[in-house]
Amino acid sequence: MSQPDPVADRPVEDRPAVVLVIDDNPTNRYILANWLQRAGHTVLEAGDGLGGLALLAPGATPRPELAIVDVRLPDLSGFEVSERIKSDPRTAGVPVIHVSAIAIATSDRTQGLYRGADAYLTEPIAPSELLATVTSALRYSRARMRAEQLARRLDTLNRATLDVYRAVDPTELAAAVARGARTLLQAPALVVTQPPDTDTVQLTHWDEDGRAVVRPAPPALLDSLAVAALGAGVGVGSARYGVQEWADLLARNDVRSPAPGGAEVTVVAARTKRGRPPVCVALHTDAETSEEDRDLVSQFTQASALALEALRSYTEEHTLSVTLQRALLPRSLPEPDGIRLAMRYLPATRGNEIGGDFYEAIETPAGLLLAVGDVVGHSLQAAVVMGELRHALRLYAHEGHPPRTVLERLDALLDREWPGWTATVCIVLVDPDRTGLSVANAGHLPPLLLDPLGEGSFVHEHGPMLGMGLPQPPSAEVRITAGTRLLLVTDGLIETRDKDLTTSLEELRTAAGQETAGPDALCEHLLRVFGAEQSDDVVLFAAEVTDQQV
């Protein structure tokens, strides 16, 4: 049976240290070093002040944790040595104990303490007094260092957690977790996650060049890690793997990963709901040097699991919202003689609230009616209002009302059924002979007309938006020729907070004129030009008159 190690059994605060003794008297140095070594300390010796400071310089090893400095030295005074140690941020935390057989007056002790010493002993010194003073100074400095380190770790934990919660997709989230874990313990970390709504497992680590490296892995790997660390439960758990055991686990799952490896590995896993794939963070076991380290990694992994669950919920809600919104829009477009139609609808890429953008195309006895609208607001209720407006528009159009009258009836409907709600709607009626348009616009972006050569012009005539209870002006009448294209859009395509609307419309006109092919090509071209992530829904509705019936 192995014997207990009295040194290892001591509290961390009282364990031996590397102690620097600076004294020009070899006999004194020998006596002090002997006492310290018998107590288990490692001793470094210097015969003058500059030599002692050199042993404290950056890169010097081993690094002293405490310095015992004679007050009277041949080059610098012990007071100057103490001041230099305390003025350097890299050594300011090293305790200094002054010793002297000559400078023993109250003024000497006072000066030493004022100039940076943590204790002042006068000779003759008893061994027990010296060792007690060393233990006390080390205990205080180590406690302060641990507190400072913990504060830094907590700050790092806070920053890393914020980075995780800022992630907008599962890949970005896994990269933030890998970077945070690496920064938290200053050690390689491997993150194993399963993005929402996929059967794919991702391995993510942060390389030495500051890049996230993502590799696929089979779901069986995540299952194995989850069972070992958590079983079927929720919360946070961990499992340890020996060097060969970890290598075998990766090999069984055909995984080649550079981090972590070559040492014992600890996997910390967290899940917030039973049955959900957990977030797993793998790192070298020896990177966790204290209970505080283990607690920080557990907290960070739990926060990452919560962030992934929030992202999963967001994805599910966004999918449901888009599905609902699409259900409120037309299932297909008509195929009228002499006109080609194309439409593109893109839900907002940010946020999970559904908007009120809609479009419509209806063949009526008076001609082909095309409409695009936008209920102001983003919510389920906005979508409900949008659906009711669209169905009412279809009804009024089939009754044979002209565009201006349709807008007035929609305005009355909003005022009666949905007071306080507003909407913009642009209606274009194409004559049966395809030679003219009637445009009625209630506060919407103006429709763009493109002639066969690509020259574009807006129909700027418009009235107030719906829901205001104000009269609409007469429809604008426009003559067209074969080959004319019409474009209706919602503001999500071009409007930005930092750009004037007039500028945005001019950019739209220029971009549309660059594509002279049919409606489908025009829509695709505009999406390429204005296709950055949008915070609002986008509707593009294009039509081309291919044949006039005169």
TrEMBL record:
Q: Does the keyword Lyase apply?
A: no
| Family annotation (InterPro entries) | Bact_Sigma-Reg, CheY-like_superfamily, PPM-type-like_dom_sf, PPM-type_phosphatase-like_dom, Sig_transdc_resp-reg_receiver
Check the record and name the SMART domains matching this protein: PP2C_SIG, REC
Q: Which PROSITE patterns is this protein grouped with? A: RESPONSE_REGULATORY
- 4-aspartylphosphate found at: 70
Q: Which residues form the Response regulatory domain?
A: 18-138
- Tell me where on the tree of life, at the top rank, the source sits: Bacteria
Keywords assigned = Hydrolase, Phosphoprotein
Gene3D superfamilies membership: 3.40.50.2300, PPM-type phosphatase domain
One matching Pfam family: Response_reg
Q: Which PANTHER family match?
A: STAGE II SPORULATION PROTEIN E (PTHR43156:SF2), STAGE II SPORULATION PROTEIN E-RELATED (PTHR43156)
The name of this protein is SpoIIE family protein phosphatase
Organism ancestry = Bacteria, Bacillati, Actinomycetota, Actinomycetes, Kitasatosporales
